[in-house]
Specification:
- With 261 residues, the protein is mainly α.
- It has a domain of 37 residues.
- It is built from 8 helices and 2 strands, in the order H-H-E-H-H-E-H-H-H-H.
- Strands 1-2 form a two-stranded antiparallel sheet.
- The longest helix has 22 residues.
- The chain is extended and about 85 Å long.
- It starts with a helix and ends in a 5-residue tail after the last helix.
- 15% of the residues are buried.
Length: 261
């Protein structure tokens, strides 16, 4: 039997009915049959399957063309496009966008006072809504980074375990600022997109040393708190440092798990 939503629904239906007959077996076969009839005919146990058609969204608009229209450098478009859309772009092929993704970039790069600059995307499942907002954000950041000098690495203050905090990137020379905020209604939704964002940011940094971007995720379980640490030793800082050190050890162990001595 071919596997499709209807056949899966039928298999699940049959499995549940067998469970009722087995777990709640009755001596009287007429009562067993009556119970089966009630379960099959009512909507207490089963409802009709609902199928949602997913429309195809073809990528037909060259990113290079959109960048030229939005006054974004070709290099920026290439770096961001490959970082974010490489899974959908065969090697050697130009990066192509879906129509609503291209429109989102064009709209986002209009002047701040222009009408229609704030974009709302309402396309269907699997249409690339995530890229519709990540593309403008990353394009703008990478375009700005062209004016930055290479920056020093982060200072890992937690490795000393002395309970003293200082900014991880206090030695940088680029203008300090929060340049983008992405808000999610649930933690579950952010998990999948964090993978894509992290992968894209790493690829951007590998393509251009000046474009090393940083982001942080803040939820109700984020280590630390909203209060700035004191100048001296702080027990809360020490506790966070210990936890961060353990996370780093676990990360390194996972990275080395597949290596052989």
């Amino acid at each position: 039997m071919p596997v499709n939503p209807i056949s899966v629904h039928g298999q699940l239906r049959a499995a549940y009915l067998r469970y009722f007959d087995t777990a709640f077996w009755l001596r009287d076969p007429r009562m067993m049959a009556e119970r089966r009839r009630l379960l099959e005919e009512s909507s207490l146990l089963f409802t009709d399957p609902l199928l949602e058609p997913v429309l195809p969204y073809d990528a037909t608009v060259p990113l290079a063309e959109v960048c030229e229209q939005a006054d974004i450098s070709a290099q920026t478009g290439e770096v961001v496009g490959r970082a974010l859309l490489s899974a959908f772009t065969p090697p050697g092929s130009p990066v192509l966008l879906r129509t609503h993704q291209a429109e989102a970039v064009r709209r986002s790069f209009q002047p701040g006072t222009a009408d229609g600059r704030n974009v709302i995307v309402t396309s269907g499942t699997g249409s690339g809504k995530t890229e519709s907002f990540l593309l403008p954000v990353l394009l703008r950041l990478v375009e700005e980074s062209a004016s930055w000098a290479p920056q020093p690495g982060a200072a890992r203050w937690w490795t000393t375990l002395d309970g003293i905090w200082h900014p991880s990137r206090g030695n940088e020379t680029r203008p300090a600022a929060i340049r983008a905020l992405i808000l999610y209604p649930t933690n579950a939704l952010v998990e999948d997109q964090m993978v894509r964002l992290r992968r894209a940011v790493r690829r951007i940094g590998a393509a251009d040393e000046r474009s090393k971007l940083w982001f942080g995720r803040y939820t109700g379980s984020t280590l630390g708190g909203a209060t700035m640490p004191t100048n001296g030793r702080d027990e809360k800082v020490f506790d966070v440092a210990v936890q961060l050190s353990e996370i780093v050890k676990e990360y390194d162990a996972l990275g080395n798990a597949g290596t052989t001595q």
